[in-house]
Amino acid sequence: MDRGHGDHRDQVVAPPVPALRLQRVSKTYAAGDGGPALEVLRDVSLEVPPGRKIAVRGRSGSGKSTLLHLAAGIDTPSAGRVEVLGEDLSSLGDRARTRLRRDRIGLVFQFFHLVPHLSVLDNVLLPAWIAAEPPGQAEVRARALLERVDLGGRAGETVEKLSGGEQQRVALCRALLRKPALLLADEPTGNLDDDTSRRVLDLLLELCAGEGSALVYVTHSAEIAAHADEVHLLRRGVLERA
Amino acid sequence: MIRYVLHALRAHWRAGRTLFVLTVLGVALGVASVLSIQILNGSALAAFRGGLQAIGGDADLSVLPRGPDLPDSAVPEVLAVAGVRAAWPVVQIPVTIAGEELSFLDVVGVDLLAPRELPFAGGETPDLSSALGEEGWAAVPLPLARRRGWKVGDTIRLASGSRAVPLRIGALVDFSRLGPTAGGKFVVMDVAQAQALLGRPGLLHHVDVQVQPGFEAKAVAAAIERRFRGRVQALAPEQRERQAAGLLAAFRLNLTALSLISLVVGAFLVYVATQAALVRRRGEFGLLRSLGATRGQVLAAMLVEVALLGVLGVALGLPLGYAVARANVAGVSATVANLYLLQEIDALTVPGWIWALAVATGIGSALAGALLPALDVARRDPRELLSAFSLHARARGAARGLLLCGLALFAVAGAGGLAFARGVPVNGFLLGLAVLAGTPLVTPWVLRQVAVPLPVRRFGLLYGVRGLAARLQTAAFATASLAVAGCMLVGITLMVGSFRRTIAVWVDSTVRADVYVTTESWRRARDQAVLGPEVIAALSRVPDVARVDRLRQVTTTAGGAAVNLGGIDMGLPGGERRFVFLEGVPRQALRRARQEGAVLVGEPMARRRGLRVGDRLTVEGPEGPVAFPVAGIVHDYSADAGSVLMDLRTMERAFGPGPIQNAALYLVPGADAEAAVDAVKARLPGVPLLVRSNRALRREIFRVFDQTFAVTRLLQAMGLLIAVCGITVTLLILARERVPELALYRALGATRGEIFRVFLGQGLGIAAVGCALGALGGIALALVLVYVVNRASFGWTIALAWPLPELARQGGAILLAAALAGIYPALRASRVPATELRREDV
Description:
The complex is a heterodimer. By secondary structure, chain A is of the alpha/beta class.
C-alpha cells in the first residue's frame, strides 16, 4: 500500500462524511427478450454514519444483493448517486472503484466464497496480496484476527476441512484484514444453523465495533436484523425504515 | 439421442465457433498429413514399378550382375538356359540434359528389334531398321516431350560423365499404354549405339528374359543363376520392386513418422477443443444425468458429436492432403531419384485404400482426441457436474502414479542405452519412444511440485503459477504436450547439431584438395559418370596444379547388398590425413593399402558387417568373389550404405582397368583456388563438368546437409503450434472454470490488470515447466538418438555437441509464443465482472 492510501485511512478514524450514502438510487435490468425492463431498486436512499450498524431486511428477490453490489461499486445504478466515504462512485472509473473497494470496503458473503486451494491463513491474507501490502505486517494481523475467531490453531489447514461456521469466521477475518471503513455483508448467516448464526453474528458485530467499521448487512431474518442499530425493510425495490 | 446431438451441435455452433473450427482443423491436419505422405510414399514405389514396366515390358525376369558390370556375352549365355524363350540386353545410364545439373534422365539402350514392342505414340511403329543406321536416333516419352517442348526431329544434348552427346528425337513413345503407372524420364535408343555413344562399350545394365510357357519363372531364375555360378541374380519384377521398397524403407519411415507427428498434433487440438467444449457444457451433461441419462448415453452423445465434426475435418483434409502431396512431389521425387537412384515420380497414384486409410485416420484421431475428456465427464456424478467449481483432486492423486510410470520408462531407456553400449542389440526407436512417453507422465507431479511451494506474497504472476496446482488436470495436459513437443525439438536439434559439428570436423580432415572436379550426371550415375582421359590430361596441364588425385568408383555387391568401392592414390604424401581413423594405425594402414592390397572400410559398413582390422572383406568382382584384408576403419558420412577405399592399383588388379569418375586438384602453395576453377572451365569449354573450389564444396556439403534436416523446422512449427493452441485453449478453459473465483478477486479489489497478470503467470508457468521438462527429456532423447539409433541404424559415430544458440533461439520462440498465447485468455479472464459471483459458486 502506498503512503497516500495510508494517510487517507488515518483520516477514516474520524471521517467527516458518512461511510455510505445512497441518494435516490434505482436499478433497472433490461429484459433480454425485449420484454418490459425489470426494476429491482426504486428511489432508494440510505445514509450510514461511521461505526453504525444497519440491517436491511427483505424477502428473496427483493433487491438486497443488488443494493450491496451497488454499495460496493461492483455494479452501477441506473439512476441516483452512491457515495462511499464521500466519493461519488459514478464519478470514478472501474479501476478507481476497484481500488476504493480494495482499500475501504470489506465484503462478507452468504456462501463464504473462500478460495479452496488456499490455506485458512492465505485466504485471510488474500486482500493484502491483492493490495501488495508488505507480507510481514499483514500476516501478523491475519493471525491476530484468526486468534480472535478461535481459528488461530488452524491457520495452515485447507479451508475444505472447516465447517460452515468456521468458514464464515475465516471470511469475516478476510473482510476485516485491511481495516475497512465500511463492511458489507450479504446474508452472512444465511447458510448456517441457528446456534452458529448467532455466534457468527455476535462476532461480526463485535469485530466491527472493535475496528470502528460501519456495517450494512442484508438478511431475510427479523431476528438477525434485530441486532442492528437500525433496521430497514426492502419491499419490491423500495427501502423503508422499519 | 441422435436428435439431441444434432440439436446440441446446432446450438453450440451458434454459441461459439472457435472450438468447432479447432476440432475440424485438428482432424483436417492429421488427415492431410497422413494422406499426403501415403500418396508420396505410394507414388515413389509406383514410379519405380512404372519404370520397370516401361523398360521391361512383359519380361518375366531381369538378370542383374552381382559384380560391377554385365558383359554383352551374358545374352547368349542366358538364351542357352532351358526355359528361356527370349532374352534381350538393356543398357541403362543416368544422364543429365547438358548444362542442367539436376535434370536427370535415364538413357535406356534396348534391342529395338527384340520381341517386346515399344508402345510408340499414335500406334504407328517407325522404320526401326533405318533408325538403327542413324547415329543418335532416340525415342522419348510423350509427357516428357510435351513438358520440354520437344518434337520429332529435334536434337537434344545429353551429358554422361564428361561426354556431351547429341541425340535426334526419331519417335515418341507412350508408356502409359503399358500400365497406369508406366512411364519415367527415359530416352530409348539402340543398345549398341547407347554403349558406344555413352562410353560403355560391351557392358550391359541387365538382361531381360521371357520365360517359355510351361516353365516356372522361379525355376528358370535359379537355372540362370547356376549357369553364371552366382555372379548374377535373376529377379522377377515383384522382387525388384521389393528391393526398391527396402531401399526406400528408411526414407518412407521418416516421412511416415512426420505424418504421425502431425496426426498427434491434430489429435491434441481435438483434445483441447473437446475439453474446452465440455467444460462449457458440464452443467448440460449434469442435467442429462439428473434426468436419467446413463453414463454410456452421455459418453455416446459426446463421441457422436465429435465424430460428426471429424467427418467435416475429413472432408477438408482429403483435398488438402492431395494438394500438399502435389506441392511436395518435386522435392520427394528429387530425393528418391538422387539419393536412392530410383525413378522420379512423374504422376501421383492414389489407390482406394489410401483414401479409406485417410478417412479412418480422421475419424479415429477425432475420437481418440475426444475420448479422455469425454470419459472424464461421463465418469462424474450429476452433483459434481452441476457444481460450477470443483478442484481436480483426482488428478492430484494420479500424479504420483503417473510419475512412477514415467520414471520406469526413463529407467528402461537408460538401461537399454547401457546395454547397447555393452554390445547388446537394442531397438533404439523403442528407447526413444520410452523417453517421449515418460516425459508427459512425470509432468503432473513436477508441475505440482513447482507450483505448490511457491512463496506467494503478491497477487500476480507467482499467484497464477501456484493456481495451476489447483487445476492440475487441465494445466498438466497443456504442460505435458508442450514438454513432448519440446522434447522432440530439443532432441532432434541436439542430434542434428551434433551431427553437423561431427561432419564439420570430418570435412576438415577429408576435404583437403584445393579444387574438386566431377560431372553433372555423377550424383545419380555414380560409376557410370566417367571423366574422359582427355579431361584428366587437361586437368594436369592447368596452371598452378601441382598434382591431380584421381578417384575411381566401382559399384558392386557384398553379401547381396550394394557397396561403393573407391580407388584413390594411397601413396599421396601425407595422404593419411585425409582419413579420420576409428581403428588402425594411419601410416601403417596406408602402407598396407599400397603394398598388400588392403582396404579401409567406412564405419557404417564395418559396424553392419562386424568388420575389424585384420578381417577380410569379400566383394563381388567381375570373375567372382574377391577378398581384401582390412587395414583400417575410418569415419565415413558419405553414404549410409558405407564405402570401401583401396589403392587404385589394387582396384585395377581386382576389377581390371577402368575409368575415373572424380578428380581432386592440389595447387602449388599460394595459388588461388577460385582462379584455378575458372582456369579449368576455360580449358575445357563445353564439357559438362562440375568444378568447385574447396570452399564451394564445403558450402555445398552443408547446404545439402541443412536441406536434408530442414524437417527440424517443421518440428519447430509443430512445437509452436502446440505451445500456442495448448496454452490458449487451456487458459480459456481455466478462465471458464474459474469465473466465480475471478469474480471473487474482483469483488475483493483486484483490478483487471492484476487478473491479467495472474493469467499471464499461468501461461508462463505452463510454458516454463513444459520447456524445462522438454529440455531435460530432449537431452535424454538426443543421447538415445546419437548413441543408439544412429549407431544401430546408420553405423555413424556422432560426437555430442551443444548448439546452444540454436536451442536458446527455439526455447525463446516457444516461451514468447506461450506468453503471446496467454494474452487473449488473460484478457478474457480480466473482463469477468464481480457480479458473476453467484451465491452457489465457489
